[in-house]
């Protein structure tokens, strides 16, 4: 973990067991950045789901690198998840219709839906040589 002008960066191997430690680090970082317990939990779940998708889809369970950047911006926390795997193929609009996933009777498939419900904004970009998933969480402001 490194801190750069309040930005917190985690580099991880794209392997599912490493996410337990990641969730704990995300929680500590979120608390340090002023998020409450519920907001921190939302970020942890969203990051875990996104990283699980990277392992399964971008790297096809063959390993790789994931970078998670937490960027506090006034009332917002931007979480940027980068990987250097295959481009994301799913339609984000279709992913917001869980009844279609449930009707297929397969396990999984609710990750993007869950992420969208927990975050205020979700955007995906394919950059020149990597994928970026940008999650935004609007932080609750405590009364002064």
TrEMBL record:
Q: Give the GO molecular function terms.
A: protein serine/threonine kinase activity
Q: Which residues form the Histidine kinase/HSP90-like ATPase domain?
A: 22-137
Q: What SUPFAM superfamilies does UniProt report for this protein, alphabetically?
A: ATPase domain of HSP90 chaperone/DNA topoisomerase II/histidine kinase
User: Which of UniProt's keywords are assigned here?
Assistant: Kinase, Serine/threonine-protein kinase, Transferase
Q: Write down the superkingdom of origin.
A: Bacteria
Entry's Pfam families? HATPase_c_2
Q: This protein is called what?
A: Histidine kinase/HSP90-like ATPase domain-containing protein
Species of origin: candidate division WOR-3 bacterium RBG_13_43_14
The uppermost taxa in this organism's lineage are: Bacteria, Bacteria division WOR-3
